[in-house]
């Protein structure tokens, strides 16, 4: 089964946020990089892509045949999706175990684990 792990950074410091990232110790920064490297090399992991800041998003809806766009995400910025990866695992427990290793999960964010429906 393939699972998509949707990474919600929440309040977690990321290299994109230079001010918050700079408040982390060098050891913590190195730990986060090492954790990501381990995750990227784990069996069954297919890297996704890191997304640009939520403020760059455009939300699209169609109402009565008319395309409507709104600047920014539809969710609160701190809840916005920061990236994703795909993980092929034997079961949900294995996907949860990997999700718990993602630094954002322990630094104020959350990881949504969702099965992928293959057509």
Task: Give an overview of the whole structure.
- This protein has 119 residues and is α+β, with helices and mostly antiparallel strands.
- It has a single domain (2-115), classed as 2-Layer Sandwich (Alpha-Beta Plaits), CATH 3.30.70.1060.
- The chain is built from 4 helices and 6 strands; from the N terminus they run E-H-H-E-E-E-E-H-H-E.
- A 4-stranded antiparallel sheet has the order 2-5-1-6.
- The protein is flat and about 50 Å long.
- The model has no long low-confidence stretch (mean pLDDT 85).
Strand content: 25-35%
Low-pLDDT regions: none
Largest sheet: 4 strands, antiparallel
Helix content: 25-40%
Which structural category fits the helices and strands? Answer: alpha+beta
Please tally the helical runs, counting DSSP H or I stretches of 4 or more residues. Answer: 4
Radius of gyration: 16 Å
Give the strand tally: 6
User: How does the overall form come out from the CA principal axes?
Assistant: flat
Mean pLDDT: 85
CATH level-four homologous superfamily name: Dimeric alpha+beta barrel
Q: Mind telling me which CATH architecture this is? A: 2-Layer Sandwich
> What is the H/E order?
EHHEEEEHHE
Report the span from N to C terminus. 13 Å
The CATH class is Alpha Beta
Report strand order across the widest sheet. 2-5-1-6
Number of separate structural domains: 1
Query: Within the CATH hierarchy, at the fold level, what is the topology?
Result: Alpha-Beta Plaits
């Amino acid at each position: 089964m393939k699972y998509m792990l949707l990474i919600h950074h929440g309040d977690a410091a990321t290299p994109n946020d230079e001010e918050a990232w700079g408040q982390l110790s060098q050891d913590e920064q190195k730990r986060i990089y090492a954790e990501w490297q381990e995750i990227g090399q784990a069996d069954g992991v297919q890297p996704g892509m890191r997304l640009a800041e939520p403020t760059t998003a455009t939300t699209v809806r169609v109402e009565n045949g008319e395309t409507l766009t709104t600047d920014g995400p539809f969710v609160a910025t701190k809840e916005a999706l920061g990236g994703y990866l795909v993980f092929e695992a034997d079961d949900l427990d294995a996907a949860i175990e990997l999700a718990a290793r993602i630094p954002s999960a322990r630094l104020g964010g959350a990881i949504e684990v969702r099965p992928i429906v293959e057509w």
